[in-house]
Amino acid sequence: MHYYYYILHRLNALTAPWLSARQDTEEEEEEEEEEEEVVVVVVEEEVEEVKEEEEVVVVEEEVEEVEEEVVVVEEEVEEVEEEEEVVVVEEEVEEVEEEEEEMRKRRRWRSRRWRRKRRRRKEEEVVEEVEEQEEEEVEEVVDPPDAAEDDDMFPTGKRRREVTSPYVTYSDVPTAPNSMEVMALIRLLLLLSLVGCHGVSSVIHSLKYFYTASSGVSNFPEFVGVGMVDELQFIHYDSNSQKAELKQSWMDRLTRDDPQYLERETRNLLGEQQRFKADIETLKKSFNQTGGVHTYQRMSGCEWDDEDDTTDGYDQFGYDGKDFLVLNLKTWTWTARTSQAFSTKLRYVHNRDLTAHLKNYLTKECLDDLKKLLVYGNSTLQRTGRVT
């Protein structure tokens, strides 16, 4: 028993250092593990701090980007607001301009209405004066000294004149008229045509061409063309001479500057003569007419208001003193005044080249020619009170 205890004691004595060392080792290991754990914790904390710092940096960058985007958006908003303000201002300016334009239109309308009334009064005075002169001329021509002989020649009695502006019509015309009578009547027809719808105005300037073709008239040209600027004749053409002639001395300056002017006008008027000659024969067939005196007329031209720079134009035809075909420049449509005019209307409507030519002439070329003639004839037209 004692030996057993002795053995145990010796074993304890022998293992005590080892156990102590082992215990120390375990403690050291534990301390190392604790230290490692501390180091790991510290590293983890540092890693977390680094991550937090990186996240902070990223967030700051994102914040900066957002701020930059906000600045860009604010600038865009400012631009949009400025554009909206500009648009609003432009709209206000447009409204003001529209109101001013409407006021100008109203003033022009009132001014035109007043000038039309004034022209109408002048036209009535001129027509009355012309009618009185014509009645005297007709009485002298139609009622010669040998009244009985005249009654035998013209059983229908004294001829009657019906005026429908801007044309003149004659009814009860004999089939074999006296040449002096017809010449007097045609002169009167041309005179009344020239003082038709558009009278003299100190503000509105006009350029008009009158073409008259006649049939059944002896000792008188079959075709006459006359050009008028502010109611002053400046060019004349007839089928007898077949040559355009100047009627104003100041036109010599124009022909010096434009040597081909007379040749060009002669060529154009010769073309009108040929067309009118064919048209009047066609119209006589349309109206079932075989004899007697007949006239086919055209008035074409333009107007320019030197106060407000407004323009207008017209193109109309007449047959035997009555309206035949009229062009509406606002709608560019033809209006047939008689049933016989429908075929002519359809021919013009389907002729696109003619429509384009008329539109260019009445809205541009005619106005350019008018202004050019006003420059050349300025001194003469001023003396006659036709230029202000």
TrEMBL record:
InterPro entries: MHC_class-I_related, MHC_I-like_Ag-recog, MHC_I-like_Ag-recog_sf, MHC_I/II-like_Ag-recog, MHC_I_a_a1/a2. Gene3D superfamilies: MHC class I-like antigen recognition-like. Keywords: Glycoprotein. GO terms for cellular component: external side of plasma membrane; extracellular space. The keyword Protein biosynthesis does not apply. It comes from the Eukaryota. Residues 126-160 are annotated as: Disordered. One of its GO terms (biological process) is immune response. The keyword Transmembrane helix does not apply. Pfam families: MHC_I. This is Major histocompatibility complex class I-related gene protein. It comes from Merluccius polli (Benguela hake). The lineage of its organism: Eukaryota, Metazoa, Chordata, Craniata, Vertebrata.
